[in-house]
Design brief:
The structure is a single chain. The protein is mostly beta strands. It is about 5% helix and about 40% strand. It contains one helix and 24 strands. The strands form six sheets. A four-stranded antiparallel beta sheet has the order 3-2-1-24, with no helix packed on it. A four-stranded antiparallel beta sheet has the order 4-5-6-7, with no helix packed on it. The N terminus is likely disordered.
């Protein structure tokens, strides 16, 4: 099989932190100005107001169709339930998404997609009578929702619909009867572009599917990239890369280059004993990536370095599976 570069060069890139092309400029993370404002106390602040952010882990008991959410401070402390009074009884939800302000929760369940007002507990149906839905993602302004739907038992397609529920869903991919599949999407900060995996590649397009380019292109399908998220200005993607010799890494690529652009290593996770990473989220100050691996929450500097464990054994029992990670305020 023709290779674009040798395994030796790939191993060197992973171990040294170099890109596949040494001429690619090193990545300098965004450094925000210091925020000197004092947030309100949690007892005074409704969801969606400025306060210390929390990590929210979504958990699903597949066997008993039960769903719950747990929140943690960024140091891994303060484990508590979230929306326990709402998600009672049987629920089957996979990878829900909080709005940018944290006052809305978008999720797919059964035949429809819903938006929950976190403060009032009022639920709005966006679309219904569809079925096979998961991995919802709300645009930053809340006007659109991207989601995945199953084609039978094997492939997923990506769709976008207006959050008001008045528009017809727009299908961005068509993988029925193919060996490819779409993966969880991510909107750019301005909501105009969307990133997602077309297994085994990563692509970026306009939110309606136009002007699509490949940001990562697999070398024959033996390596693959998943779970892309945008940085703060929408010029780079951060995603997980599984290389064909068994290495899991977290990397970043410039979306403006396209056509299989070079990637820059953020961290070799396999060398740290971390495998099968999922659900990356970027901190509000754009300095840290949080993600899930196994039953643990990890963090790694966007500038590169070692991943450290934030919270261990987040799964309450063997029946619970982590199905999402997000930020919420208060």
């Amino acid at each position: 099989m023709k290779r674009l570069f040798t395994v030796t060069l790939l191993v060197s890139a992973i171990l040294t932190g170099c890109t596949k092309d040494d001429t690619l400029a090193p990545y300098t993370p965004y450094q925000p100005p210091e925020d000197t404002t004092k947030p309100p106390t949690p007892s005074q602040a409704p969801y969606g107001t400025v306060d210390a952010p929390y990590l929210v882990v979504s958990l699903l008991d597949y066997e008993h169709s039960q769903f719950k959410m747990e929140k943690y401070k960024l140091d891994g402390s303060f484990r508590a339930g979230l929306l326990d009074d709402y998600f009672t009884g049987n629920h089957f939800i996979d990878n829900p998404d909080f709005s940018a302000k944290g006052d809305k929760l978008c999720y797919a369940e059964g035949p429809g997609i819903y938006i929950l007002d976190v403060n009032s507990r009022q639920k709005q149906e966006v679309i219904g009578n569809v079925g096979g839905l998961e991995s919802t993602e709300m645009s930053p302004d809340g006007s659109r929702i991207a989601y995945l739907n199953w084609n039978g038992d094997f492939t997923l397609d990506l769709n976008v619909v207006g959050s008001s529920g008045e528009s017809t869903p727009l299908k961005l991919t068509n993988f029925e009867n193919t060996f490819s599949s779409a993966g969880p999407p991510s909107f750019s900060p301005n909501g105009n572009r969307i990133a997602y995996s077309e297994y085994p590649d990563i692509v970026v397009s306009d939110w309606d599917g136009r002007n699509k380019v490949k940001v990562y292109q697999s070398e024959g399908g033996v390596d693959w990239a998943i779970f892309p998220i945008f940085n703060d200005d929408g010029t780079r993607l951060i995603y997980f890369l599984h290389l064909d010799y068994g290495i899991d890494a977290i990397v970043t690529s410039d979306v403006r280059e396209g056509a299989g652009s070079e990637w820059t290593l953020i961290g070799n996770l396999t060398s740290q004993g971390i495998s099968d990473p999922i659900y990356p989220v970027l901190s509000d100050d754009m300095s840290t990536i949080y993600f899930i691996a196994g039953s643990n929450i990890y963090k790694i500097p966007l500038a590169g370095g070692l991943a450290t464990k934030v919270a261990a054994n987040t799964i309450g029992s063997n029946s619970w599976t982590i199905v999402g990670l997000d930020f919420v305020e208060r």
